[in-house]
Specification:
Length: 252
């Protein structure tokens, strides 16, 4: 599969999830998308703060819980889906500041926009776009967050370089993502379905952290690392997957 094939598969999958035609089948930790969010660290109170259709249960961590957000800042959520972390960040920032969500899947962006209108979120914006070529001017962002998305991008170095470009000097990022403990079988790496399920595109952890450094970030800190412990996922390739939450800062 080339990069364009991967993106087409990803858009198809997340379009179906947005339309309610599929769920995130690799997570089997509970019957509802809210259960899936609780399993990766959200609290019931977090989920009460956001419009219910934004809760798709497709994340692997809880980035807004691990990053300090100051009122008046500009936050960028990469692969924002239907807006779960965008709305949570907006609630935490109050009326001052701006939260921008960027997603490659049109259906996700239109759900986010609709929910923002319906629920009176004046300080959020959803933009259609790709992480590898962000629709965001350079050095305009205070905080980048992302939840279970970079693994889906075929060119991780380009993604992290874009994050570096858009952050202001001193800006920070907190990324929740999936990585592997060892190499995955070739047939998994080549599987379109495994790409869309956040498996085939997951990098080995050390290579992932090194890619972030190569993009220009010097201090890269893993704040949380957990096995991807969902019933039925211990065996096979899922047993080699870890959920990590990584923080770094762009040098001033
Ligand atoms: C696993 S979902 C996570 C959604 C959201 N972060 C959440 O936690 O609810 C991945 C999202 O990333 C988007 N995505 C995947 N590849 C992307 C890319 N290259 N650029 C922008 N968005 C992308 C998908 O469309 C999808 O909405």
């Amino acid at each position: 599969m080339n990069d364009q094939d991967i993106k087409a598969v990803v858009k198809d999958r997340y379009g179906k999830i947005a339309r309610g035609e599929q769920t995130f089948c690799c997570l089997t930790c509970g019957p509802t998308t809210a259960d899936q969010c609780l399993a990766v660290g959200y609290t019931a109170e977090d989920l009460r703060l956001v419009p219910e259709p934004a809760i798709l249960g497709v994340g692997c961590g809880h980035p807004t819980a691990l990053v300090d957000l100051q009122s008046g800042e500009t936050v960028l959520d990469l692969g924002s889906g239907a807006g779960l972390d965008v709305f949570l960040a907006a609630r935490r920032m109050g009326k001052r500041g701006l939260v921008i969500g960027v997603d490659i899947t049109e259906e996700m962006v239109s759900i986010g926009r609709q929910l923002a209108d319906q629920h009176g979120f004046d300080n959020v914006e959803f933009r259609l776009g790709e992480i590898e070529q962000l629709p965001v001017p350079s050095e305009t962002i205070d905080v980048v967050i992302s939840n279970c998305v970079i693994n889906l991008t075929p060119d991780k170095l380009a993604s992290f370089k874009e994050i570096h470009r858009v952050l202001k000097p001193g800006g920070r990022f907190l990324i929740a993502d999936l990585v592997t403990t060892e190499e995955l079988p070739k047939e998994v790496r080549a599987s379109a379905a495994a790409w869309a399920d956040c498996l085939a595109g997951a990098m080995e952890k050390e290579a992932y952290l090194e890619t972030i450094r190569c993009a220009g970030f010097s201090q890269v800190e893993v704040l949380v690392e957990k096995p991807y412990e969902f019933p039925g996922t211990e065996d096979g390739p899922w047993g080699k997957i870890r959920s990590v939450q990584v923080r770094t800062v762009k040098r001033r």
